[in-house]
Amino acid sequence: MELAGALQLGELASAFAALPIFPLFDTAYFIVSILYLTYEPGAVEMSRKSPFASWLCAMLHCFGSYILADLLLGESPIDYFSNNSSVILATAVWYLIFFCPMNIFYKCVSFLPMKLIFVAMKEVVRVRKIAAGVHHAHHRYHHGWFIMMATGWVKGSGVALMSNVEQLLRGVWKPETNEILHMSFPTKASLYGTILFTLQQTHWLPISEANLIFFFTMFMMVCKVFMTVTHSHASPFAPVENFICPVFFGSVSSGHTNHHHDHHGASHEVSHPPPPPAKSKEELNEGTRKRKAKKAE
Amino acid sequence: MELAGALQLGELASAFAALPIFPLFDTAYFIVSILYLTYEPGAVEMSRKSPFASWLCAMLHCFGSYILADLLLGESPIDYFSNNSSVILATAVWYLIFFCPMNIFYKCVSFLPMKLIFVAMKEVVRVRKIAAGVHHAHHRYHHGWFIMMATGWVKGSGVALMSNVEQLLRGVWKPETNEILHMSFPTKASLYGTILFTLQQTHWLPISEANLIFFFTMFMMVCKVFMTVTHSHASPFAPVENFICPVFFGSVSSGHTNHHHDHHGASHEVSHPPPPPAKSKEELNEGTRKRKAKKAE
Amino acid sequence: MELAGALQLGELASAFAALPIFPLFDTAYFIVSILYLTYEPGAVEMSRKSPFASWLCAMLHCFGSYILADLLLGESPIDYFSNNSSVILATAVWYLIFFCPMNIFYKCVSFLPMKLIFVAMKEVVRVRKIAAGVHHAHHRYHHGWFIMMATGWVKGSGVALMSNVEQLLRGVWKPETNEILHMSFPTKASLYGTILFTLQQTHWLPISEANLIFFFTMFMMVCKVFMTVTHSHASPFAPVENFICPVFFGSVSSGHTNHHHDHHGASHEVSHPPPPPAKSKEELNEGTRKRKAKKAE
């Protein structure tokens, strides 16, 4: 029985890993990505004022992960745009979401049950991308652990990691925060996931790639669907982090800080503008996490 | 007669396409580009305070199109700087325009009749660059329509597309707008032109490259010279766009927007800073178009 | 005697040039680099709030020169991160400086005599990097003078040249200034140094690379140690520059500027925000030079 179960699971996992992504899952990915672009303040107005800029933003949301990965590996950042079919598909989704008569398409896809399906399907693509990214980097840098992780991470996080650039394209500029200072759940999950895939790729994790893809996809699906239903943004990693971080990274030791203050007043005089006070930062942090969680979904 | 005329035109076009660009037309290109750098507020003061930064800005204005194209195709962004003669020529122009005794050189080249000649010659270089960009991209991505367009476009627009970066180098930061949100005429013309050249390259447009270069150059010359003489910034594409855009991209449907407001208040709470109100944006838009039209010339 | 002395010096220089950099000198480089990160306002708080962002900043400070050089030459910007040992070493230094119990490590390395040794050792690495950068670029672009200089320069200046990006990562944004507008001593010295190494590489400077490395390292060591001891930021190049610059680049000719004002009022209306007034710029300039000098050390 045990064995049979294991076998069945193995077959299921490998069948799942062999599932073609294009066009079905990709479409879901594009829909959810562009859906969250419409949630950005001013995005809809922009689509009317300058459709081209809006289209470019949509492309960043759909293909940001490829652009970043190609940049990191020193390849052409628009290399993926040679897949005309994908770009045309993403363009069609963008057009339907923003300009469909009576806004029908938007209403359909943002109808919760529909949306949940798409959100779940998007995670399938995300995990595949992470695996592919780690695989690609491993192919070029056989022992480049950090490069594998970096590549897998950007493939999983996508546009979220270049949110400041994406905002700038829309004429918005929020320098006081960024996705790395305040990671959203998908970005963090991609980071942890890419570590697992790197360990698997370098044979430190005794599990088949298919199984890892299967289990990590399930985990991501459950988390994201749950978060979307409950509109919650609480990271499931929080408890673990709150336990581990204090051990390794301590808490703000004002003494340490003051020490610097005394010793290097000069460097502080010129701090201009001063970093926002902790409190406001916290609030902002909260708000940002909300928005970012959406964007990065 | 007809035939003879066609033949003559064909010969003229191919002769025109065979015209060497360096050094004459390049010089004109550098002169006009750096001339418009001097129009940037604070550019002249900067040339006195930190000549090196001013020189770097001038290089961006002269070679921005190569830098961007190389970035897009994943090559060394400073690859073109291996053409020492071009760089030295551009440096000489920069020096003469900013530091020539009694400002003679600047007065000569900005004397309208002279300037018009240079402006016309600059368009010759621009159109050649677009053709070369599309050609280069087509050579690497045989069916990469979007890559061909992107490459041709940045080759034609040049520094305008990286205006925010160029401003940042001068210590100026205007995040509320950019060349893609509010396209200047040259940027838009380059975009339409690169579409034509891409169609020609992929044999969808039944016209020889030489002829297309010839006719598009004539069009650009006439437009730019006219706009420079009349100090106007009205885009000749406006009528067509005003007719087509509403059909495909509608107008701001407040219902659509409100829908988002209700549905995703959260994402709005954190909009910080808020996007400037439409009215002020319009004004700015106007002003920007003015400045950008100049820069991108 | 003369000859013997020359021989001995030559042997000393070549022995010095053959000195292995890793791990000793690299460690010193990482220590000083990260030490100056801790001087950045808010850096210590950040290390507590988001250790990952802090680690990323530390990596930029340690490997910024490689990242920039790879970007310029169109290679993978994270290529150097395939040297796991270097990255792990840098990570260890980062951890010890920020999170060592009772802050012991920080106190040790920032104890002046110790610090001076590290500062001196860092210059050894800097000069080697410049030489290697010029060498690498010369290998790819045999006559690319400007590319050699650019590569050597970024290899020598490192993170200072991307300070705006590094600040943005920490949620700080100071667009009104940058390292190119107001060069710190190390950046300027790297620029002059890279010119010398380029001349040497192209056989215009009749001196062996080993000797040039030796003498330039000595010069940098003396300057940096002196500046660190005296907390001074006066550039030793100032006298020469103050003599040469006026000759070649004159001083602000208000006439010139006004001319633009009259002629191109339009371009000024839209200058928004206006460039800060000269006076405040000067102060800022001073302050910045202080901070930058530290960062770039």
From TrEMBL, chains A, B, C:
Annotated GO CC locations: nuclear membrane; sarcoplasmic reticulum membrane
Lipid bilayer topology: Multi-pass membrane protein
Transmembrane segments: 12-39, 51-73, 85-106, 210-229
InterPro entries, A to Z: TRIC_channel
Keyword Ion transport appears in the UniProt entry: yes
Catalytic reaction annotation: K(+)(in) = K(+)(out)
Keyword Thylakoid: no
Annotated region described as Disordered, given as residue ranges: 256-297
Subcellular location: Nucleus membrane; Sarcoplasmic reticulum membrane
Family, as annotated: Belongs to the TMEM38 family.
Protein name: Trimeric intracellular cation channel type A
Gene: Tmem38a
